[in-house]
Write a structure and sequence with these properties.
Strand order of the largest sheet: 8-10-7-11-9-12
Distance between the termini: 40 Å
Largest sheet: 6 strands, mixed
Structural class: alpha+beta
Shape: globular
Bound molecules: adenosine-5'-diphosphate, magnesium ion
Helix content: 25-40%
Number of strands: 12
Radius of gyration: 20 Å
Number of helices: 10
Strand content: 15-25%
């Protein structure tokens, strides 16, 4: 069914939940929002372009989920509690069924984290989804990239390389292992972990471009180096089954799109972090340490070039 811009916005508005701190949501020229007193606002934006950030055959519900997930992952990496988002939608055609399915995925994840969609923009063009997400973090409690100290441990949540494994299978024209495809299409932003790492982690980043590339951002911002043990990188059973060891290591070290958190913490926090992993039912692996110098070194992975780069 073909619709006009106004109908599409009405459709989105009907699906959007609200929250008490949204004084005025979708419908006026601006949203009016009331951040809690004393909290800092963490703001982030990420765009998904068809064919670049997801395969063209991706289900609309998965696109909706992922567009929000990548933004919530940024909030998680700062230790912020998600609150609001806005949505810029560029659509090749006004397709009501597509939009409803997109909303299914978007609002399923939004509900999980109590996020309200408070505004946006709807235009015609190549399929692209931009979301801006806002979260709250207590003053000076945000997890930044520049806090890593020499001697800190380097940790990573969950497993690495799954999303990149799915992409590798897709590019090769092979059947994509369902658990890997699920990680590519429906990444889980580590919101609870990020929040819990306040006061524990010295720095954090979410893994969107690949572990080596993203950890290099922490190293650069903190003025330190990092050493990683290839054997310590966590892998899912599905990844182990699908790839030989060398290919698997490369995916774990350089594959993007996992949206796990990489963070540093003093060695005195090891016990606390093991307890936290159990409480969240989310594995946390200690994969290396922060050292004097610069760059990220991984003796088992010499010669691997890190990460995905646009315009490269
Ligand atoms: P304006 O021309 O004043 O910018 P629009 O017609 O673009 O208004 O939007 C009308 C209302 O609908 C605004 O409140 C805007 O934030 C909201 N809106 C438009 N597109 C979206 C969208 N994709 N998701 C959520 N809200 C949207
Ligand atoms: Mg507008």
């Amino acid at each position: 069914m073909r619709e006009r811009e106004f109908d599409l916005i009405a459709r989105i508005r009907r699906r959007a939940a609200t929250r008490g701190d949204v004084l005025l949501g979708i419908g006026d020229d601006c949203a009016l929002l009331a951040p809690p007193p004393g909290m800092q606002l963490a703001v982030t934006m990420d765009t998904l372009n068809a064919g670049v950030h997801f395969p063209d055959d991706t289900a609309p519900a998965d696109i909706g989920w992922k567009a929000l997930a990548v933004n919530l992952s940024d909030l998680a990496a700062m230790g912020a509690d998600p609150a609001w988002c806005t949505l810029a939608l560029s659509l090749p055609q006004a397709d009501a069924a597509w939009l409803e399915a997109f909303c299914d995925g978007l609002f399923a994840l939004a509900a999980r984290h109590g996020v309200a969609l408070v505004g946006g923009d709807t235009t015609r063009g190549p399929l692209a989804v931009s979301i801006t997400a806002h979260g709250f973090v207590p003053a000076d409690a945000a997890l930044r990239r520049d806090g890593a100290r020499i001697g800190d441990d380097v940790w990573v949540s969950g497993t690495l390389g799954d999303a990149a494994g799915a992409l590798a299978q897709w590019r090769a024209g092979a059947t994509i292992a369902p658990p890997l495809r699920a990680r590519l299409d429906r990444p889980t932003p580590r919101v609870e972990l990020g929040r819990a790492l306040r006061g524990i982690a010295s720095s954090a980043i979410d893994i969107s471009d690949g572990l080596l590339a993203d950890l290099a951002h922490i190293a650069r911002a903190s003025g330190v180096g990092a050493e990683i043990e290839a054997d310590a990188l966590p892998a899912s059973d599905a990844l182990r089954e699908a790839f030989a060891i060398d290919a698997m290591r490369r995916l774990q070290a350089t594959g993007g799109d996992d949206y796990e958190l990489c963070f540093t913490a003093p060695a005195t926090q090891r016990e606390t972090l093991h307890t936290l992993a159990a409480r969240l039912d989310l594995p946390l692996a200690r994969i290396g340490r922060i050292v004097a110098g610069s760059g990220v070194h991984c003796p088992g992975l010499d010669g691997i070039t890190p990460g995905y780069q646009h315009f490269a």
